[in-house]
Design a protein that fits this description.
- The protein is built from three helices and no strands.
- The chain has 89 residues and is mainly α.
């Protein structure tokens, strides 16, 4: 029962992260929201592993966390080096 309540709370926070990703005023808000979405997905996979009693899901969660981290760092590097547009141009 408690895992179900936690899963619903995590899903609700995922919805809020997706809203921030779509409505974020800056690129960095969107990147932070996507990173948060990935972290919450890892938490959801870990909850699924605990609920089902299968430890091999934790390997998938760890792999997804690593991909999420590398993707976020790569996206931040790209936005750091991308040329900025001037307003009014």
């Amino acid at each position: 029962m408690i895992l179900f309540v936690v899963a619903v709370a995590v899903l609700l926070s995922i919805v809020f992260a997706l809203l921030r990703a779509f409505l974020g005023p800056t690129v960095f808000d969107r990147i932070l929201a996507v990173n948060s979405f990935g972290t919450k997905t890892v938490l959801l996979i870990a909850l699924l592993a605990a609920a089902s009693g299968r430890g091999d899901y934790l390997d998938l969660a760890l792999l997804y966390a690593l991909l999420n981290f590398i993707g976020t760092v790569a996206l931040l590097r790209y936005t750091e080096q991308a040329p900025r547009r001037q307003e009014g141009s």
